[in-house]
Amino acid sequence: MKLLRWLLALLPLGITIPVALVLQLLAPDLPRVVVRADPGTWLILLGGVATLFLLARAWLRRSSEKQCLEVINAERQQSEEARRRFYRRLDHELKNPLTAMRAALVNLSESSGSMASQAAFSDVEHQAERLSRLVADLRKLAELEVRPLEEYPVDIRDLLEETIDAACLQPGRAGRSVNLIAAQVPWPLPPVTGDRDLLGLAFYNLLENALKFTGPADTVEIRAAEDGRNLTIEVADTGPGISPDDLPRVFEELYRGANARGVEGSGLGLSLVQRIIARHGGELMVRSRQDQRHGTVFTVRLRVARDAGITKPTVTKR
Amino acid sequence: MNDSQIRLLLADDESAITANLKPFFERAGFLVTAVGDGQAALDEVAANPPDLLILDVLMPRLDGRAALRKLRQSGNWTPVILLTQVGESTERAMALEEGADDYLNKPFDPHELLARIKSVLRRARPGQPSLASSWRLVSDSLTLDRRAHRALLNNQPLTLTPKAFSLLEYLMTHPDDLLTRERLLDVVWGWDYPAGTRTVDTRMAELRRVLGDDPTQPRYIETLPGEGYRFIGVVRAEP
Description:
The complex is a heterodimer of chains A (318) and B (239). Chain A is 54% helix and 13% strand. By secondary structure, chain A is an alpha+beta fold. Chain A folds into two domains: 1-147, no CATH class; 152-308, Heat Shock Protein 90, CATH 3.30.565. The model of chain B has no long low-confidence stretch (mean pLDDT 86). Chain B has helices at 15-27, 38-47, 64-73, 89-97, 110-123, 162-173, 181-189, 196-211, and strands at 7-11, 31-35, 52-56, 80-83, 102-104, 136-139, 142-145, 150-153, 156-157, 221-224, 228-231, 236-238.
């Protein structure tokens, strides 16, 4: 490609030299062409040549930048594909031993009698279930990349209310409440286009995190507003906050921050949220403080549905 | 050996799985044969016809899917539970096309597999294709055309989201079965999460709205409070 450009650039000279030689040989007596001009004209001519040179250089550079970008994109796609393959293999390699373990555990617990061993079995069973959930989350992550998105108008307020109800009904959540502040005046929130179940999973994970890292004395709040183009949903809590060291890493797969040690979870929840929002062409951000006004705010930005009909989600953006 | 005992054939290349599931099913009163690949499963079916097959998908020699296809092509309608990855819609379509009666994601709770076995056996019509392997299902004025991915009510096409269609499909292929929300999440969505049960309720509400089914006096979908859902219409397969 690059060689072709250079050849193209040399083409005019490549044509004129042989033509000049042929002319010299066939008609050596042609009259000379003498050009005389004032300094101003020469200056303009010189300027023209310089501009042509610079234009040609700019054109060459731009096309080589484009090539670089293509290479980078291809490499990125390859590494994404490699990551997907890794998930699929990991999922496959984990699920068989787990299936065997769970079957073995049922056999053991049904054949054993003593209280102490029953307690041990139920512990191991619990851990096997935890691993099963991890496998399930890995599978969700892998599938999220390939599964076709449902693209229908989603009423976010309705979805948030449902998510809050579901999260507060989980065991150990008695007495917890979540404030929902959704803009309603002068018009209700417009719908976004997307996969309701996946968006629900994303908001549930954010809310679940907020509830998990806060106590009954803390406040958890969900705010939703729109600006005509985007819908912004914030999940905010007055929990201990995320340390500045952990903050840039919270969306990484299996990353567990200092606060998260000792709290049960797969370490994939936020990665899932990020994937889901990215596939909807949206953005996900986090802010957190650990001083007196400690707490964390996750912000999701989703595009408002165009004419509330069915629109295509645009390219993935982070 | 008791002749009235129900015979299960379990095919999985992981001996750790078959070795642990076998005693579990035996305690539940079944007669269990375990094999390590799809070809061995077909050989066993020919030699000693079982009442139900449990097939893993990824196996050496002949995978579970190919074994199932061969079985159905030869006109054998023995009920089959496929241990597959059903989250992806293509996988589900394939499992259905090949005539699986039910499918379950690994890793599963053995009790859940036992429950599925019992319900598949209850629905089984010996020697006949099951509803799960029929392309056109009819219940009263509702018709499900699985090949065209279309549902008709009084011959009028219904507008359903793909998820609601899959849900209706699973309901109609498993009539009279108590379907817990967890099970529906597993088989229709392919994944489960604590709040997912609400997701099922939302889709079920959509389905009922489209079907014009009154939850207090249902023709098709009955809610069993605290348990799940049940398709109560009589379903028959149409050629």
